[in-house]
Write a structure and sequence with these properties.
The protein is mostly beta strands. It has a domain at 50-155: Cathepsin D, subunit A, domain 1, CATH 2.40.70. The chain is built from two helices and nine strands. The strands form two sheets. Strands 1, 2, 3, 4, 5, 6 and 7 form a seven-stranded mixed sheet that branches. The chain has a two-stranded antiparallel ribbon with strand order 8-9. The longest helix has 6 residues, at 2-7. It is elongated and about 95 Å long. The termini are far apart. 13% of the residues are buried.
Length: 169
């Protein structure tokens, strides 16, 4: 059979054509195959996970939002803090979902207790009737794990408390 393969060329067979060898555009072999887990799937039976937190003697529910880069509290929440806090004049214009923007005040470092972890963390404030949001920044700092199957949230921190950072003012 190899004799036939070696004797076939463009002159002896009308279907044989000479082609250029094309170099692949990937110069290195792929070591990781795409996974079906890369396709987002909706979480069934419920909305965003809510947990209870305590900030300045005020206990309230927050939404865990891993898509939010920073943690944000509504201005109305400031009135409930004891002792009260002074909001800085610093404002940041940020883009929200799509082309919308929001003005955030802060950051203000606040002591927060969530999932058994006490930590001082910077929060921003927004003048809007929105639920309090724990963003990815605080989820990462407290090493939160959202266990969707068991409807629980817990922390992977080795120590339950983190020393407060010293701040001026």
């Amino acid at each position: 059979m190899s004799e036939v393969a070696n004797s076939v060329d463009a002159d002896t067979c009308p279907f044989a054509t000479v082609v250029d060898v094309v170099q692949p555009f990937l110069t290195e072999p792929q070591t990781e195959l795409p996974s079906m887990m890369m396709i987002p799937s909706p979480v069934m039976d419920g909305s965003a996970p809510h947990i209870m937190v305590t900030v300045r003697s005020s206990e309230f529910s927050v939404i865990l939002d891993s898509g939010a880069e920073v943690s944000v509290l509504p201005l109305q929440q400031v009135e409930k803090f004891q002792p009260p806090i002074q909001l800085p004049a610093t404002m940041h214009e940020v883009r929200t979902f799509g082309l919308s923007t929001a003005t955030l005040f802060g950051p203000v470092p606040l002591d927060i207790l969530l999932c058994g972890v006490h930590i001082r963390h910077p929060f921003y404030f927004v003048d809007a009737a929105l639920p309090p949001i724990v963003g990815y920044d605080l989820m990462k700092a407290t090493r939160l794990v959202v266990d969707v199957d068991n409807h629980t949230v817990w922390s992977r921190r080795l120590h339950a408390s983190v020393p407060s950072l010293s701040t001026s003012g």
